Amino acid sequence: MNLSADEIAGVVDLFGALSRATLRTALSELAFKRGIASDPDEFEAAIADAIDSYHLLELSDESTQTPLVVVGPTAFPKLPDGASDLPHILDIDDRSIDRDRLGAAAEQRFRADASRAVEAGNDHRVRELLDVSYELDAWGPVDLETTRDRLDAALEGTDGA
Prior knowledge:
Layout: H1 5-15, E1 18-19, H2 20-33, H3 44-52, E2 56-60, E3 67-71, H4 86-90, H5 99-120, H6 123-139, H7 145-155
Antiparallel strand pairs: 1-3, 2-3
């Protein structure tokens, strides 16, 4: 079953935050509802891609130290067909994450991603991250000016395409 990053974000949005394991289970349940046999682990690559593209953000749950995924700044959450029953199927309570804590985690991750892209000379990723930086600015309490300047500086001397 192929789901877009926005559809995966839509599933997460139903709950506020989920562990990756629970998200895999939710996606497997959704596949089952659609009559598609699946293994929850087969969704890991799609979840990792959604995290990489900032459709989802990952942070640790303070109470259990289990990483949770939440809807990220580039997502336009879309509820996949059949997903509205997932809260009843999984019997999981909604979670809410403090926006300041989420912003701090997003900012820390963004800075690390930016450093890796600049150090690797990966202009494509630098451009992607510049786009993400504007989404992050609008999405949460972050201060990315210095990191954005570093990304811009990394592109100086390139063709800018």
